[in-house]
Write a structure and sequence with these properties.
Elements: H1 7-28, H2 30-79, E1 83-88, E2 93-96, H3 114-117, E3 131-137, E4 140-149, E5 158-165, H4 167-178, E6 181-188, H5 191-195, H6 200-221, E7 224-227, E8 232-238, H7 239-247, H8 252-257, E9 269-275, H9 281-297, E10 302-307, E11 310-315, H10 327-341, E12 345-349, H11 356-371, E13 376-379, H12 388-395, E14 404-405, E15 418-423, H13 435-439, E16 442-447, E17 461-464, H14 471-482, H15 490-503, H16 513-524, H17 529-536, H18 540-551, E18 554-556, E19 560-565, H19 572-583, E20 591-599, E21 602-609, H20 615-620, E22 625-626, E23 630-636, H21 640-667
Parallel strand pairs: 9-10, 12-13, 12-15, 13-14, 15-16, 16-17, 19-20
Antiparallel strand pairs: 1-2, 1-5, 3-4, 4-5, 6-8, 6-9, 7-8, 10-11, 18-19, 20-21, 21-23, 22-23
Length: about 675
């Protein structure tokens, strides 16, 4: 191989120098110079010949290299362990190498749609980008690396797909994932209620039936179970077993519900499940416990699964069981009193756009603070049209002067040890002013809604009772135990009474013995039903809007009724709530959902249930939440017609599954 591609240039320089020297030599001796000139000509001729020969050899070498490289490139492209496919924007194959025949019975023809060959291949969503993904076809897995081809401006754009069989790697990955540890806490969430009044033999028989039901379910999943207390079980299984349980939708909940004690109460289970990923075993146990607490806080009879960094819920069809004992209420009342006594200022806040339950609960807590002679404020949101009538009544009372404020009114507060009491909500972004949660570190949460995954961080005290009719009922019970000398005023009692009336639809739904006990206590304290009726009266425009909304209602199979409010109007949330309540009075209707245009880019949902169906589960699928019988959601950037179609689809599917499960339970399947 030649080493110097410019040899003739170098030799020419040398020959010129030699020629100059010969010219100098001719000045001294002509004969010697002539001999030197002959020698110079011979050298020049030889050099020229050598350079020409080298040029011919180099040209021949380059031709051989180019020919060999082309052959090697063609060989490499055809024999690479990857299939190379070039497609156009429509996903049609423009070229592919021979390696593709290792994955397919035959080489596809040009212009074949790649989805006819591999339906799992993605082209349009990743067009013009660079990246990778894995798709499955039949019993194989394929890794795809995609890259756009640089083309001239006016040429058709193309993309190259490098496809390789990674079945063994994916199978190993799946095997690893399916063998991951899953920790489960199972609790009989209504243990005290179902065991109440049972003989020892009946208790033993019922527990044996529960143990057998859970044990049979565990053996089917390949898990290991141990009972650690009368009502608590710890289970260890694999991700494969959990996937089986997910596919079966945790039918053990329905099977356990078929077990009834002699007092006719069904047994309900709650579960907290955590899947091992990168956390320690201690963190895994904490996640499972948090899931169980969340399931219990949502009313029980459900499963909370922490998986892939997200909490998922299953079940939740049974009604929350009312506790017949007020022991917890007494303990919480004493705890709240101690917290208030240690505070130098008390703030009371509810959810945005307060309703009567929220406002009544706030008035009840304000009475506690007033009883202890502590400075207090009720923080209201900017939108509270639903309670404006009550606020007008309170403006005339001197004792309520400067009680109602907005967040900006107290931003310069100098309180050193303030306490924030949140009522009728536990979701941070629904609080009338979420900034207060950051400014006040001592937070107490009192709510009757089923606990959501999104919860106020690090509260000092939490009192959530999903079985209660309203937060006003919970506050009324706390007032009973707050102090022997506490006396409710007429307005305080009426505010709490109106909250109970609103959330129970005038004592028609979600009522229990304790609800009527609370209402009786408030009536003895001076609650005025006539004033409540005055507060609930609506104006002419609202009445017309309500009638128009009800006229648009559509009835669907399964007891579902849906109405829409496409136009924007004042008090639209109040109108939607009232319409949803009113539609429940129609015969055979079990669930009503109102879909309304809340703002220009936000669609609101208001859902109600007679108690047979859990509307909270449906609203959670749209990013909302609430209670079993009352729930709602707000969807940003959605089209009202599209959202309506989605609501119908989700609701009908839920009703079908719920009725199917109840049918299976009735037949003992």
């Amino acid at each position: 191989m030649p080493r110097n591609l410019s040899a003739w240039i170098d030799l020419t320089i040398h020959l010129l120098i030699m020629l100059v020297l010969i010219g100098v030599l001719s000045y001294y001796n002509f004969y010697i110079a002539a001999i030197a000139a002959v020698v110079w000509l011979a050298l020049a001729s030889f050099a020229r010949e050598r350079c020409t020969d080298r040029a011919r050899r180099f040209e021949r070498y380059c031709r051989n290299v180019v020919r060999n490289i082309n052959e090697m490139l063609n060989y490499a492209v055809d024999e690479l362990p990857q299939a190379i496919v070039i497609v156009n924007e429509d996903g049609r194959i423009q070229w592919c190498n021979d390696r593709i025949t290792a994955y397919l019975p035959e080489k596809p023809e040009q212009d074949t749609d790649i989805k006819d060959v591999w339906p799992g291949v993605i082209v349009a969503p990743v067009w013009g980008q660079e990246g990778e993904y894995v798709f499955a076809h039949e019993d194989k897995y394929y890794h795809v690396y995609y890259h756009p081809v640089k083309m001239a401006p006016r040429q058709e754009p193309l993309m190259t797909l490098y496809i390789q069989d990674v079945t063994s790697h994916e199978q190993l990955k799946n095997t690893y994932q399916q063998s991951r540890t899953v920790l489960v806490y199972i609790q009989i969430d209504n243990y005290d209620e179902v065991m109440q009044g049972q003989t020892e033999a009946e208790r033993t028989s019922l527990l044996l039936a529960v143990n057998q039901t859970i044990d049979k379910w565990m053996k089917n999943l390949g898990g290991f179970m141990r009972r650690v207390s009368e009502d608590l079980y710890v289970v260890i299984l694999t991700r494969e077993g959990l996937d089986q349980a997910l596919n079966e939708k945790f039918d053990v909940l329905d099977k356990a519900r078929q077990l009834q004690s002699t007092n006719r109460l069904p047994v309900t289970l709650s579960m907290g499940i955590a899947v091992a990923e990168n956390q320690t075993m201690a963190e895994l146990g904490a996640q499972a416990q948090a899931g169980l607490d969340l399931a219990l806080g949502r009313g029980g009879d459900q499963v909370a699964v922490m998986m892939n960094g997200k909490m998922q819920f299953f079940g939740g069809r049974a009604k929350a069981v009312e506790k017949h004992t007020r022991v917890k209420a007494r303990v919480v009342a004493h705890a709240i009193r101690e917290i208030m006594e240690g505070a130098d200022e008390i703030y009371i806040i509810g959810h945005h756009n307060e309703d009567f339950d929220c406002f009544g609960a706030a008035m009840g807590v304000a009475k506690m603070a007033r009883q202890l002679e502590k400075p207090y404020h009720i923080v209201l949101s900017d939108m509270n049209d639903g309670i404006d009538k009550f606020l007008e009544l309170l403006k005339e009372k001197e004792e309520y002067a400067d009680v109602f404020v907005h967040a900006e009114d107290i931003k310069n507060s100098t309180a050193l040890n303030p306490v924030l009491i949140v009522v009728d909500t536990h979701i941070p972004h629904l609080v009338a002013d979420p900034t207060l949660l950051d400014r006040v570190h001592q937070v107490v949460v009192i709510d009757h809604h089923r606990r959501s995954e999104n919860f106020i961080k690090s509260p000092l005290l939490v009192y959530i009772e999903p079985a209660a009719s309203s937060t006003s009922e919970l506050i009324t019970e706390l007032l009973m135990y707050f102090g022997d000398d506490i006396r409710l005023g007429r307005l305080d009692a009426t505010a709490l009474y109106s909250g109970i009336v609103v959330d129970t639809k005038n004592f028609a739904v979600q009522t229990g013995v304790r609800t009527f006990d609370a209402a009786a206590f408030l009536r003895r304290s001076g609650a005025d039903p006539v004033m409540v009726r005055h507060l609930f009266r609506s104006d002419y425009d609202t009445t017309v809007a309500l009638a128009r909304t009800k006229s648009r209602a559509e009835l669907y199979p399964g007891g579902l009724i849906i109405a829409t409010i496409p136009e924007r109007m004042n008090n639209i949330q109040v109108i939607a709530a009232q319409a949803a309540d009113s539609l429940l009075r129609i015969e055979n209707v079990r669930m009503s959902i109102l879909i309304f245009q809340l703002t220009e880019d936000t669609v609101g949902l208001s859902a109600r249930s007679t108690g047979e169906l859990n509307v909270q589960v449906i609203m959670e699928s749209f990013g909302g939440g609430g209670h079993q019988n009352v729930a709602g959601a707000q969807i940003k950037g959605g089209n009202l017609a599209e959202i309506k179609a989605k609501v119908i689809e989700v609701s009908e599917k839920y009703i079908e599954e719920n009725d199917k499960d109840e049918s299976n339970s009735a037949t003992g399947r």
